[in-house]
Amino acid sequence: MRSLYVSQQGCYLSLQQEKILIKRGQQVLDEVQLPLLEQILVFGQSQVTTQVIRACLQRDIPIVYLSRMGFCYGRLLPIGRGYRQLARYQQQLSAVERLITAQAIVQAKLKNSRVILLRQQRRQATAPLTLAIESIEYLVQQAATAESTERLMGFEGAGAASYFGAFSECLADERFVFIARSRRPPGNEVNAMLSFGYQVLWNHLLSLIELQGLDPYYACLHQGSERHAALASDLLEEFRAPIVDSLVLYLINRRMMDIESDFEPKGGGIYLSNLGRKKYLRAFLQRMEERIQTDVGEQPRWDLLNQQVRAYKLFVYDPVRVYKPHVIR
């Protein structure tokens, strides 16, 4: 199954039998077979015909509309798509079951962040790396005994501060400067890549959650609302470091990103340009298609996302099957 990214501005999506054509003017940029399509993500100003929308609704293919910078405006889903059956099970999870799962999610996020720093420390040890690694290790232990989600979020926030406080030690390209994590707006080029990457991955997880029939607004760690699909945020935590952070480091340290042409200032922040988004998405797709060794054998990273969403679904049906987040080594 394939996700279609429309990041170039001024595109026009039309239907030709069982194919979606992506055009700009008279030029056909790409074409995708409908049966192979999992979701469509439209960044910025592009048009989708009624015929394409109808075909996607009939096949349960979500269409996601985002700003050029990756902010999600909304998703188009068929009217029959509902979460009633599984939502009932999700709502019936006890406070203890939710807390245990939230503890596991935070611990996994902290452990994966620590592994990213450990890899750099093995290449070149520095005092900031050592301090951050020790701090995160302590917070992993604290998270295991946290008595509330509020305490857990505090440990998660402290871990993120330690991790990003040493993140610059992992950067080998002196053109890219990183001091601290900034989100709205991203304060520099590294933050621009991180924010965009998290948003793209969040949308993928949201689609997988909906395809499994889970209610994305009921979660264990994050608080859901009408505008916040909290379960996607919960499941994102374990994948931030191994997928997005590691890809950002790879692109920067291999000097694959150009600081002049791949970024642009806007609204007091720094964002990926059209060229930068296209470059990032191409690298993201390649990374997700790579086969990696996991507990169930060798599999593409795409399958790993599916595996974790299905594991969460099994946990919802039978909480005795404790949810185990993905942890890298």
UniProtKB/TrEMBL annotation:
InterPro entries for the chain: Cas1, CRISPR-assoc_Cas1, CRISPR-assoc_Cas1_C, CRISPR-assoc_Cas1_N
Enzyme Commission number, as recorded: 3.1.-.-
Protein's UniProt keywords contain GTP-binding: no
Record keywords: Antiviral defense, DNA-binding, Endonuclease, Hydrolase, Magnesium, Manganese, Metal-binding, Nuclease
EC category name: hydrolase
Family: Belongs to the CRISPR-associated endonuclease Cas1 family.
Quaternary assembly: Homodimer, forms a heterotetramer with a Cas2 homodimer.
HAMAP family for the chain: Cas1
Reported function: CRISPR (clustered regularly interspaced short palindromic repeat), is an adaptive immune system that provides protection against mobile genetic elements (viruses, transposable elements and conjugative plasmids). CRISPR clusters contain spacers, sequences complementary to antecedent mobile elements, and target invading nucleic acids. CRISPR clusters are transcribed and processed into CRISPR RNA (crRNA). Acts as a dsDNA endonuclease. Involved in the integration of spacer DNA into the CRISPR cassette.
Name by which UniProt lists this protein: CRISPR-associated endonuclease Cas1
Gene that encodes it: cas1
